[in-house]
Amino acid sequence: MKNILSMSQLSNEEVLNLIDSAIDFKAGKKSEIGQDKFAINLFFENSTRTKSSFQVAEMKLGMKEIEFEASTSSTSKGETLYDTVKTEESIGASVAVIRHSQDKYYEDLVNNHNLKIHIINGGDGTGQHPSQSLLDLMTIYEHFGSFDGLKVGIIGDLSHSRVAHSNAEILTRLGASVCFGGLDSWYTPEFAEIGPHMSVDELCQEMDVVMLLRVQHERLSAEENKNFSKADYFEKYGLDMDRVNMMKPDAMIMHPAPVNRGAEIADDVVECDKSYIFPQMANGVFMRMAMIEAVLEGDNAEDELTGQKCKIVLHK
Description:
By secondary structure, the chain is of the alpha/beta class.
């Protein structure tokens, strides 16, 4: 694969192969595929986990990072995203990890055949977040060994969450049943086509995985933020220890983070026995290693094919 842009782009087989590869990296697999190669992490929105774990993944693969800060880049002078990416490709970057506020920003890039650099989507607007979805899948797979028949509840700011969009789609495709919780207004027709809207108590009692989402205040309107009550939200939709005690013995609590303690999750739940929030973050490095390796391996395959064609021509 040349790029990794969305979960809909990946086949079930490719997803499972990436999970296997990430688990191998976690078990100690080594790869020098990134030796003498450069990566650029173009983050136009704030990030802690995604950016940091891509940086660590790149270093573990032997890559060097070209430093980039959006606030001091030429984008402030009107440079287009394409020209920024083409510039980094021209000075030697092999992989560009991009987070951007525009939904499907990558379409203009991949439709331009002048770009040879590999693009990995680090999150686009309210669209997709494939690396987060893949690390979530890895974490679930490690625990249950399968997706078929699992019940997954996603609770929170569904309509603004790229994690919700990515996970709901791929989990359903892999055989899980996905249900939703949170404000009715966030349960859009897109999610209604996938699964029902349930109360948080019902979800806690019935689900194998309870996946919480942060309320994305930066994407809410001024009126929505004005009317938002953290205490009321937590009472209706937050996960506290009383609700944790309703869950199945082997159920998982997940969250893509950042965590807003006291809003969608109680402080004492964040690191309780059922919580996999920090293991998710640890798995993120290994999954991102697998993703980078997968796009770089495409270069090796292309080189081998070119070599074979050359041999055929020389033989003739």
